[in-house]
Amino acid sequence: MKKIIVKQVKSAIRKPKNQKLTLVALGLRKLNQEVEHDASPAILGMVDTVNHLVSVKEA
To answer: Is the CATH number of domain 3-58 3.30.1390.20?
Structure first.
């Protein structure tokens, strides 16, 4: 399966609770933190929910 690297580039302050919880579910807790995930439909859906807060690139 393809791997993606998700990096948080914007703060979650003043964002809805579901977006904050999505960032935590992805493993992102700080700005500029990067995590690597499989490109599964569940992960891609979470990334789509917070696409304005993160950047994504292929590993």
So the answer is: yes
